[in-house]
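Can't paste images in this forum, so I'm doing it all in text. The chain is below; anyone willing to post the predicted C-alpha cells underneath?
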Amino acid sequence: MPKVLLIEDDRELGGQITTTLEGAGFEVTWWTEGKVPDPEGLDLVIVDLMLPGMYGLDILKALRAESDLPVLVLSARTDTSDKIRALKLGADDYLTKPFWPDELVERAKARLRRPFLARSEELEVGPLKVHLDDHRVTLHGRPLDLTPTERALLTALARRRGAAVTRGALVDALDAQHDGAERNLDVHISRLRKKLGDPALVETVWGVGYRLAVKSPA
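Text version of the structure:
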C-alpha cells in the first residue's frame, strides 16, 4: 500500500483528500503544520504552499537537498511564477485549487508510476553512460562529442529513463528562454539521436515530449 504524507492546514479539505486517497488504496498520514518530513518509508508527499510553521516551497527545497521522493504541490495561487518556481525547485506536479478529488488520485498514481530522479554521479542505460561529475557522456566506453545543449537534454532524459519527459521540462533543463528553446527542441533531439547512433533510443511521446528507451543503444 503506497504511503502518502499530506501536509494541508485546511481541515475540511485535508479530511476530504485523506478520505479520497484512502478509498483509492493509499495509506495517508496527515499533518496540518508545515515542517520537513523524514522521507524514509514514504512514497509520496502532497504539500500545500501556504502553511503555518513552514512555507510549502521551503519544505520542497529541504526535501530535494536529501531526497528524490515524489512531491505534489497544492495551491490556491494561480500565479504562473509560483508554479514555475515549484517545478524548478523539484516538484513533480502542481495542482491548483479547487480540483476534483479523482484528479488528485490519478496524479498521485502517475507520480508513483514514474521512476525517482537518479542522484548518483553516473547515469547508465546499457552501454550509454552520463557522467554527472565531469559532464562526460560515453557510449561503449568511448566519449561522445555532444554540445552542452545535447548533453543537458540527454541528462534530463536519462534521469527519467523509461518515462516520458514533457517538452516543457526539457526546455527547463536547458535553462533557456522557452520561446526559442521550444522551437529548436526537435532540432536538438534530432542531432542527439544521430550522435547516439540509434534514432529509436530517444522515443517521441506524442502530445507529451520524449522518452529515453530502456533498451541498450546500438
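Residues 178-196 form the longest helix (19 residues). Helices lie at 11-23, 56-64, 80-88, 101-113, 148-159, 167-173, 178-196.
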